[in-house]
């Protein structure tokens, strides 16, 4: 019961943050008082859950990345092409939330959090398309290369072509570009 209530309160705080970001489009303009009011909680309750406004976002993003990795493990994708489609299908479920972060100039938080978490989680996925090296340095460079590419493509799609290009077309465009680059 206590965990359910805590989860609900945390969710209300997160939703309040996204609502206020959508309205204000600036984290700096959002106060703890406004967040607490929007979430229907006291400031004291807010501080029981989060130390700062930024922590709401980093916790939310980290939870999404953990969900992404959990689903990736569960799907056991055999081909890199499947990973590309999986990435875009997973993250476009959160297109509205990601667009809010993007418009508030907070999209870099997603990339930074991914850069911290993915190299650590990468070896737990076990897929044939992974690099063969077990060297952590190699994993960091390989994952940063992928993270940068995937998130930049997703960012462009959210900002410009969300209404014009389907997720499957987006995956196809990226795979064609990668195939062309390999053939040269």
Descriptive account of the structure:
With 184 residues, the chain is an all-alpha fold. It has helices at residues 2-24, 32-39, 43-49, 53-75, 80-92, 95-103, 107-121, 136-161, 167-183. The radius of gyration is 18 Å and the shape is globular. The longest helix has 26 residues, at 136-161.
- Measured on Cα atoms, how large is the radius of gyration? 18 Å
What is the mean predicted local confidence, pLDDT?
Answer: 91
Counted beta strands: 0
Low-confidence stretches: none
Tags for this entry?
184 residues, mainly alpha, 9 helices, 77% helix, globular
Question: What's a concise summary of this model?
Answer:
About 75% of the residues lie in helices and about 0% in strands. With about 180 residues, it is an all-alpha fold. Helix 4 crosses helix 7.
Layout of SSEs?
Layout: H1 2-24, H2 32-39, H3 43-49, H4 53-75, H5 80-92, H6 95-103, H7 107-121, H8 136-161, H9 167-183
């Amino acid at each position: 019961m206590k965990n359910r209530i805590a989860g609900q309160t945390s969710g209300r705080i997160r939703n309040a943050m996204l609502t206020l970001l959508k309205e204000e489009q600036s984290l700096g303009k959002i106060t703890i008082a406004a967040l607490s009011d929007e979430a229907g909680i006291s400031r004291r309750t807010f501080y029981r859950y989060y130390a700062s406004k930024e922590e709401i976002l980093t916790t939310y993003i980290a939870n999404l990345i953990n969900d992404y990795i959990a689903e990736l493990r569960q799907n056991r994708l055999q081909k890199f092409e499947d990973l590309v489609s999986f990435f875009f299908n997973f993250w476009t479920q959160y297109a509205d939330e990601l667009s809010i972060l993007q418009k508030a100039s907070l999209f870099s938080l997603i990339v930074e959090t991914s850069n911290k978490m993915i190299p650590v989680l990468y070896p737990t996925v076990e897929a044939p398309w992974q690099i063969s090296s077990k060297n952590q340095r190699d994993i960091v460079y390989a994952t940063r290369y992928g993270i940068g590419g995937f998130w930049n493509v997703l960012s462009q799609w959210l900002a410009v072509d969300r209404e014009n290009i389907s997720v499957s077309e987006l995956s196809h465009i990226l795979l064609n570009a990668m195939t062309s680059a390999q053939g040269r």
